Amino acid sequence: MDAYIVAATRTAGGRKGGRLAGFHPVDLSALLLDELLDRCGSPSIEVEDVIFGCVTQIGEQSANIARGAILASRLPLSVPGTTVDRQCGSSQQALHFAAQAIMSGCMDVVIAGGVESMSRVPLGSSVFLAKQEGFGGPLSPKILERFGEQGRFSQFTGAEQVARKYGLARPALDAFALESHQRAARATRRGAFNREIFPLKVTGEDGQEVSHEADEGIRFDANLEAISEVKLLADGGCLTAATSSQICDGAAAVMLASERAISRYELQPLARIRETGVLGGDPVIMLEAPIPATQATLRKAGLGIGDIDLYEVNEAFASIPLAWAQALGADRDRMNVNGGAISLGHPLGASGAKLMTTLVHALVEKDKHLGLLTMCEGGGMANVTIVERV
To answer: One of 96, 212, 346, 361 is an active-site residue; which one?
Structure first.
Protein backbone atom coordinates (compact mmCIF):
# COMPACT_ATOMS: atom_id res chain seq x y z
CA MET A 1 0.00 0.00 0.00
CA ASP A 2 1.28 3.46 -0.88
CA ALA A 3 1.49 6.50 1.38
CA TYR A 4 0.89 9.96 -0.04
CA ILE A 5 1.60 13.48 1.21
CA VAL A 6 -1.68 15.36 0.76
CA ALA A 7 -0.83 18.60 2.56
CA ALA A 8 2.37 20.19 3.83
CA THR A 9 3.04 23.48 5.54
CA ARG A 10 5.56 25.26 7.73
CA THR A 11 6.07 28.47 9.58
CA ALA A 12 8.58 30.95 8.28
CA GLY A 13 11.71 30.57 10.36
CA GLY A 14 12.14 32.87 13.34
CA ARG A 15 15.52 34.13 14.50
CA LYS A 16 16.55 33.67 18.12
CA GLY A 17 14.46 36.14 20.08
CA GLY A 18 12.62 37.06 16.88
CA ARG A 19 9.04 37.04 15.71
CA LEU A 20 8.21 33.50 16.82
CA ALA A 21 9.74 33.81 20.29
CA GLY A 22 6.38 34.84 21.72
CA PHE A 23 4.66 31.58 20.77
CA HIS A 24 4.50 28.66 23.17
CA PRO A 25 5.74 25.70 21.06
CA VAL A 26 2.56 23.74 21.82
CA ASP A 27 0.38 26.53 20.46
CA LEU A 28 2.67 27.02 17.45
CA SER A 29 2.27 23.33 16.63
CA ALA A 30 -1.49 23.47 17.12
CA LEU A 31 -1.80 26.29 14.59
CA LEU A 32 -0.14 24.08 11.97
CA LEU A 33 -2.40 21.14 12.78
CA ASP A 34 -5.41 23.39 12.18
CA GLU A 35 -3.86 24.70 8.96
CA LEU A 36 -3.40 21.14 7.66
CA LEU A 37 -7.07 20.45 8.30
CA ASP A 38 -7.95 23.52 6.26
CA ARG A 39 -5.52 22.66 3.47
CA CYS A 40 -6.72 19.09 2.99
CA GLY A 41 -10.16 20.49 2.16
CA SER A 42 -12.19 17.73 3.80
CA PRO A 43 -14.10 18.69 6.95
CA SER A 44 -14.97 15.05 7.61
CA ILE A 45 -11.40 13.71 7.56
CA GLU A 46 -10.48 11.46 10.48
CA VAL A 47 -6.87 11.77 11.62
CA GLU A 48 -5.74 8.58 13.37
CA ASP A 49 -2.45 9.70 14.90
CA VAL A 50 -0.11 12.68 15.22
CA ILE A 51 3.65 12.03 15.37
CA PHE A 52 5.88 15.00 16.12
CA GLY A 53 9.62 15.41 16.32
CA CYS A 54 11.24 17.52 19.03
CA VAL A 55 14.83 17.43 20.26
CA THR A 56 14.98 19.43 23.48
CA GLN A 57 12.12 17.84 25.40
CA ILE A 58 12.12 19.88 28.58
CA GLY A 59 9.96 22.67 29.95
CA GLU A 60 7.51 23.92 27.33
CA GLN A 61 8.52 21.07 25.01
CA SER A 62 8.17 18.27 27.55
CA ALA A 63 5.40 15.80 28.41
CA ASN A 64 4.72 14.62 24.83
CA ILE A 65 4.35 17.86 22.87
CA ALA A 66 2.46 16.05 20.08
CA ARG A 67 -0.45 15.34 22.41
CA GLY A 68 -0.27 18.87 23.77
CA ALA A 69 -0.57 20.24 20.25
CA ILE A 70 -3.68 18.13 19.66
CA LEU A 71 -5.29 19.45 22.83
CA ALA A 72 -4.61 23.03 21.70
CA SER A 73 -5.95 22.41 18.17
CA ARG A 74 -9.31 21.68 16.52
CA LEU A 75 -8.56 17.96 16.35
CA PRO A 76 -10.91 15.72 18.37
CA LEU A 77 -9.70 14.63 21.80
CA SER A 78 -9.82 11.03 20.51
CA VAL A 79 -6.75 11.66 18.32
CA PRO A 80 -3.58 10.36 20.04
CA GLY A 81 -0.11 11.79 19.66
CA THR A 82 3.48 10.76 20.30
CA THR A 83 6.81 12.57 20.22
CA VAL A 84 9.99 11.32 18.53
CA ASP A 85 13.64 12.17 19.17
CA ARG A 86 16.08 11.17 16.47
CA GLN A 87 18.01 14.37 17.03
CA CYS A 88 18.01 16.65 13.97
CA GLY A 89 16.13 14.00 11.99
CA SER A 90 13.27 13.79 14.49
CA SER A 91 10.46 15.02 12.27
CA GLN A 92 11.83 13.18 9.24
CA GLN A 93 11.61 10.04 11.35
CA ALA A 94 8.10 11.08 12.39
CA LEU A 95 7.25 11.17 8.70
CA HIS A 96 8.76 7.71 8.23
CA PHE A 97 6.72 6.30 11.09
CA ALA A 98 3.56 7.87 9.66
CA ALA A 99 4.29 6.49 6.19
CA GLN A 100 5.00 3.04 7.61
CA ALA A 101 1.68 3.01 9.48
CA ILE A 102 -0.11 3.73 6.22
CA MET A 103 1.98 1.42 4.04
CA SER A 104 1.35 -1.45 6.45
CA GLY A 105 -2.41 -0.92 6.16
CA CYS A 106 -2.76 -0.11 9.87
CA MET A 107 -3.88 3.50 9.37
CA ASP A 108 -5.26 5.74 6.64
CA VAL A 109 -4.53 9.31 7.77
CA VAL A 110 -1.58 10.35 9.94
CA ILE A 111 -0.02 13.76 10.57
CA ALA A 112 3.76 13.97 10.96
CA GLY A 113 5.64 17.09 11.92
CA GLY A 114 7.96 18.74 14.35
CA VAL A 115 8.64 21.83 16.39
CA GLU A 116 11.52 23.55 18.13
CA SER A 117 11.43 26.89 19.91
CA MET A 118 15.14 27.47 20.35
CA SER A 119 14.47 30.90 21.85
CA ARG A 120 12.28 29.55 24.65
CA VAL A 121 13.92 26.14 25.10
CA PRO A 122 17.64 26.57 24.35
CA LEU A 123 19.68 23.88 22.65
CA GLY A 124 21.21 21.50 25.18
CA SER A 125 19.16 22.75 28.11
CA SER A 126 17.78 19.28 28.86
CA VAL A 127 21.33 17.95 29.40
CA PHE A 128 22.71 21.06 31.09
CA LEU A 129 19.89 21.43 33.60
CA ALA A 130 19.92 17.70 34.43
CA LYS A 131 23.64 17.86 35.19
CA GLN A 132 23.09 21.01 37.23
CA GLU A 133 20.60 19.12 39.39
CA GLY A 134 22.97 16.18 39.80
CA PHE A 135 21.15 13.80 37.44
CA GLY A 136 24.19 13.12 35.27
CA GLY A 137 24.45 13.08 31.48
CA PRO A 138 23.99 10.76 28.51
CA LEU A 139 27.63 9.59 28.15
CA SER A 140 27.82 6.39 30.15
CA PRO A 141 31.02 4.76 31.44
CA LYS A 142 30.66 2.02 28.82
CA ILE A 143 30.52 4.57 25.98
CA LEU A 144 33.58 6.38 27.29
CA GLU A 145 35.38 3.07 27.78
CA ARG A 146 34.66 2.09 24.17
CA PHE A 147 35.50 5.41 22.52
CA GLY A 148 37.88 7.05 24.99
CA GLU A 149 38.19 10.83 24.77
CA GLN A 150 36.60 10.67 21.32
CA GLY A 151 33.48 9.48 23.12
CA ARG A 152 32.80 13.05 24.18
CA PHE A 153 31.01 13.39 20.86
CA SER A 154 30.78 16.83 19.29
CA GLN A 155 28.97 17.84 16.12
CA PHE A 156 31.38 20.75 15.70
CA THR A 157 34.33 18.36 15.78
CA GLY A 158 32.54 15.99 13.41
CA ALA A 159 31.83 18.78 10.92
CA GLU A 160 35.51 19.76 10.94
CA GLN A 161 36.54 16.12 10.47
CA VAL A 162 34.21 15.81 7.46
CA ALA A 163 35.74 18.96 5.96
CA ARG A 164 39.26 17.57 6.34
CA LYS A 165 38.34 14.12 5.02
CA TYR A 166 36.82 15.54 1.83
CA GLY A 167 39.42 18.24 1.30
CA LEU A 168 37.08 21.17 1.93
CA ALA A 169 38.86 24.38 2.87
CA ARG A 170 37.36 27.57 4.22
CA PRO A 171 36.99 29.38 0.85
CA ALA A 172 34.70 26.61 -0.45
CA LEU A 173 32.62 26.67 2.75
CA ASP A 174 32.31 30.46 2.69
CA ALA A 175 31.24 30.40 -0.97
CA PHE A 176 28.61 27.76 -0.18
CA ALA A 177 27.21 29.88 2.67
CA LEU A 178 26.92 32.87 0.34
CA GLU A 179 25.14 30.69 -2.21
CA SER A 180 22.66 29.53 0.45
CA HIS A 181 21.68 33.12 1.26
CA GLN A 182 21.50 34.11 -2.40
CA ARG A 183 19.27 31.16 -3.29
CA ALA A 184 16.99 31.78 -0.32
CA ALA A 185 16.77 35.48 -1.16
CA ARG A 186 15.87 34.74 -4.79
CA ALA A 187 13.29 32.16 -3.75
CA THR A 188 11.70 34.61 -1.31
CA ARG A 189 11.59 37.45 -3.82
CA ARG A 190 9.89 35.31 -6.48
CA GLY A 191 7.36 33.91 -3.99
CA ALA A 192 8.64 30.33 -4.13
CA PHE A 193 7.78 29.80 -0.43
CA ASN A 194 4.32 31.36 -0.57
CA ARG A 195 2.44 28.08 -0.96
CA GLU A 196 4.28 26.30 1.82
CA ILE A 197 4.49 28.99 4.51
CA PHE A 198 1.58 29.49 6.89
CA PRO A 199 1.56 33.23 7.73
CA LEU A 200 1.29 34.02 11.43
CA LYS A 201 0.02 37.20 13.03
CA VAL A 202 2.59 38.60 15.45
CA THR A 203 2.99 41.83 17.36
CA GLY A 204 5.96 43.85 16.14
CA GLU A 205 8.39 45.88 18.23
CA ASP A 206 6.26 48.96 17.64
CA GLY A 207 3.19 47.22 19.03
CA GLN A 208 1.57 46.83 15.61
CA GLU A 209 0.30 43.49 14.34
CA VAL A 210 2.26 42.17 11.38
CA SER A 211 2.23 39.00 9.31
CA HIS A 212 5.24 36.72 9.77
CA GLU A 213 5.55 35.13 6.36
CA ALA A 214 9.25 35.37 5.44
CA ASP A 215 12.21 33.54 6.97
CA GLU A 216 14.00 35.95 9.27
CA GLY A 217 17.48 34.49 8.90
CA ILE A 218 18.04 35.33 5.23
CA ARG A 219 20.70 37.96 4.66
CA PHE A 220 19.56 39.61 1.46
CA ASP A 221 22.76 41.68 1.34
CA ALA A 222 25.14 38.78 2.06
CA ASN A 223 28.57 39.11 0.49
CA LEU A 224 31.67 36.96 0.45
CA GLU A 225 33.89 39.57 2.05
CA ALA A 226 31.76 39.78 5.20
CA ILE A 227 31.38 35.98 5.41
CA SER A 228 35.13 35.47 5.08
CA GLU A 229 35.80 37.81 8.01
CA VAL A 230 33.72 35.82 10.53
CA LYS A 231 35.83 34.29 13.31
CA LEU A 232 36.64 30.57 13.17
CA LEU A 233 34.77 28.33 15.62
CA ALA A 234 38.02 26.56 16.51
CA ASP A 235 41.68 27.40 16.05
CA GLY A 236 43.03 25.53 13.06
CA GLY A 237 39.54 24.74 11.81
CA CYS A 238 37.63 26.01 8.78
CA LEU A 239 34.04 26.46 10.01
CA THR A 240 32.49 29.66 11.33
CA ALA A 241 29.07 30.79 12.53
CA ALA A 242 28.47 31.99 8.96
CA THR A 243 29.01 28.48 7.55
CA SER A 244 26.86 26.80 10.21
CA SER A 245 23.08 26.46 10.49
CA GLN A 246 21.23 29.24 12.25
CA ILE A 247 19.47 28.84 15.60
CA CYS A 248 15.82 29.03 14.65
CA ASP A 249 12.26 28.83 15.99
CA GLY A 250 9.78 26.99 13.80
CA ALA A 251 7.31 24.22 13.17
CA ALA A 252 6.30 22.17 10.15
CA ALA A 253 3.77 19.43 9.49
CA VAL A 254 2.62 17.13 6.70
CA MET A 255 -0.51 15.06 6.34
CA LEU A 256 -0.11 11.55 4.92
CA ALA A 257 -2.93 9.43 3.58
CA SER A 258 -3.58 6.08 1.94
CA GLU A 259 -5.21 5.63 -1.47
CA ARG A 260 -8.33 4.56 0.38
CA ALA A 261 -8.43 7.83 2.31
CA ILE A 262 -7.68 9.88 -0.80
CA SER A 263 -10.70 8.37 -2.49
CA ARG A 264 -12.95 8.59 0.58
CA TYR A 265 -12.17 12.23 1.41
CA GLU A 266 -11.49 13.44 -2.16
CA LEU A 267 -7.96 14.56 -1.30
CA GLN A 268 -5.39 15.91 -3.77
CA PRO A 269 -1.99 14.28 -3.22
CA LEU A 270 1.24 16.23 -3.69
CA ALA A 271 3.67 13.33 -3.64
CA ARG A 272 4.04 9.61 -3.00
CA ILE A 273 6.57 8.17 -0.58
CA ARG A 274 8.82 6.17 -2.89
CA GLU A 275 11.40 4.87 -0.38
CA THR A 276 12.67 5.49 3.15
CA GLY A 277 15.90 4.60 4.89
CA VAL A 278 17.77 5.19 8.13
CA LEU A 279 21.33 4.25 9.01
CA GLY A 280 23.79 4.55 11.85
CA GLY A 281 27.45 5.42 11.28
CA ASP A 282 30.57 6.43 13.16
CA PRO A 283 29.46 8.60 16.13
CA VAL A 284 32.85 10.35 16.26
CA ILE A 285 32.90 11.85 12.76
CA MET A 286 29.12 11.67 13.27
CA LEU A 287 27.81 13.88 10.45
CA GLU A 288 29.05 11.76 7.53
CA ALA A 289 26.16 9.27 7.84
CA PRO A 290 23.97 10.84 5.09
CA ILE A 291 26.46 9.55 2.50
CA PRO A 292 26.19 5.79 3.15
CA ALA A 293 22.51 6.20 4.10
CA THR A 294 21.75 7.80 0.73
CA GLN A 295 23.72 5.15 -1.14
CA ALA A 296 21.86 2.36 0.66
CA THR A 297 18.43 3.92 0.11
CA LEU A 298 19.07 4.55 -3.58
CA ARG A 299 20.09 0.91 -3.99
CA LYS A 300 16.95 -0.22 -2.22
CA ALA A 301 14.84 1.97 -4.51
CA GLY A 302 16.65 0.78 -7.64
CA LEU A 303 17.70 4.33 -8.45
CA GLY A 304 20.91 6.23 -9.12
CA ILE A 305 21.70 9.73 -7.91
CA GLY A 306 21.20 10.99 -11.46
CA ASP A 307 17.57 9.85 -11.36
CA ILE A 308 16.77 12.34 -8.59
CA ASP A 309 15.64 15.77 -9.78
CA LEU A 310 15.95 17.74 -6.52
CA TYR A 311 17.86 17.08 -3.29
CA GLU A 312 17.40 18.62 0.14
CA VAL A 313 20.54 17.97 2.21
CA ASN A 314 20.37 19.70 5.57
CA GLU A 315 22.95 22.45 5.93
CA ALA A 316 23.86 21.70 9.53
CA PHE A 317 27.34 22.88 8.52
CA ALA A 318 28.50 23.78 5.03
CA SER A 319 30.89 20.83 4.99
CA ILE A 320 28.05 18.28 5.15
CA PRO A 321 26.13 18.94 1.90
CA LEU A 322 29.40 19.67 0.08
CA ALA A 323 30.91 16.34 1.18
CA TRP A 324 27.63 14.56 0.36
CA ALA A 325 27.53 15.99 -3.16
CA GLN A 326 31.19 15.12 -3.72
CA ALA A 327 30.84 11.53 -2.49
CA LEU A 328 27.60 10.87 -4.38
CA GLY A 329 28.64 12.63 -7.58
CA ALA A 330 25.50 14.73 -7.21
CA ASP A 331 24.68 17.75 -9.35
CA ARG A 332 24.95 20.72 -6.97
CA ASP A 333 22.52 22.70 -9.14
CA ARG A 334 19.81 20.30 -7.94
CA MET A 335 20.74 20.56 -4.25
CA ASN A 336 19.03 22.97 -1.84
CA VAL A 337 17.79 25.03 -4.76
CA ASN A 338 15.95 27.46 -2.47
CA GLY A 339 18.69 27.74 0.13
CA GLY A 340 19.06 25.77 3.34
CA ALA A 341 19.63 25.93 7.05
CA ILE A 342 22.58 28.32 6.77
CA SER A 343 20.19 30.97 5.46
CA LEU A 344 16.74 29.71 6.46
CA GLY A 345 17.52 28.28 9.91
CA HIS A 346 17.54 24.84 11.49
CA PRO A 347 14.73 24.44 14.03
CA LEU A 348 16.09 21.02 15.09
CA GLY A 349 13.04 18.82 15.68
CA ALA A 350 11.06 20.58 12.93
CA SER A 351 13.71 20.51 10.20
CA GLY A 352 12.84 17.16 8.63
CA ALA A 353 9.19 18.10 8.06
CA LYS A 354 10.27 21.63 7.09
CA LEU A 355 12.61 20.37 4.38
CA MET A 356 10.06 17.86 3.13
CA THR A 357 7.51 20.65 2.85
CA THR A 358 9.97 22.71 0.82
CA LEU A 359 10.92 19.70 -1.32
CA VAL A 360 7.40 18.68 -2.36
CA HIS A 361 6.41 22.27 -3.16
CA ALA A 362 9.62 22.75 -5.16
CA LEU A 363 8.85 19.60 -7.18
CA VAL A 364 5.47 21.07 -8.03
CA GLU A 365 6.82 24.54 -8.81
CA LYS A 366 9.60 23.26 -11.05
CA ASP A 367 7.52 20.43 -12.59
CA LYS A 368 10.02 17.80 -11.45
CA HIS A 369 9.45 14.14 -10.67
CA LEU A 370 11.69 12.71 -7.92
CA GLY A 371 13.03 14.35 -4.76
CA LEU A 372 15.37 13.15 -2.02
CA LEU A 373 15.74 14.44 1.54
CA THR A 374 18.55 13.53 3.93
CA MET A 375 20.06 15.00 7.04
CA CYS A 376 22.85 14.28 9.49
CA GLU A 377 21.88 13.54 13.09
CA GLY A 378 23.49 13.52 16.51
CA GLY A 379 24.96 10.15 17.44
CA GLY A 380 26.06 9.42 13.87
CA MET A 381 22.74 8.65 12.14
CA ALA A 382 20.92 9.76 8.99
CA ASN A 383 17.43 9.45 7.54
CA VAL A 384 16.71 9.41 3.81
CA THR A 385 13.34 9.89 2.13
CA ILE A 386 12.64 9.65 -1.59
CA VAL A 387 9.36 11.10 -2.86
CA GLU A 388 7.66 11.09 -6.24
CA ARG A 389 5.45 13.97 -7.34
CA VAL A 390 1.99 12.88 -8.45
So the answer is: 346
Task: Report how far residue 231's alpha carbon sits from residue 28's, in angstroms, rounded to the nearest whole number.
Answer: 34
pTM metric for this prediction: 0.98
How much is the pLDDT for 2? 98
Backbone dihedral angles phi then psi of residue 382, each to the nearest 5 degrees: -160, 140
Q: Is 88 a catalytic residue?
A: yes
**Phi/psi of residue 251, each to 5°?**
-145, 155
Q: Count of residues for the chain? A: 390
pLDDT in tens, 170-228: 999 999 999 999 999 999 999 999 999 999 999 877 888 999 999 999 999 999 999 99
Supply the pLDDT for residue 156: 95
Nearest Cα to Cα of residue 215 among 363, 357, 100: 357
- Which of 88, 96, 212, 238 is catalytic? The answer is 88
Identified catalytic residue from 40, 238, 248, 376: 376
Active-site residue flag, 40: no
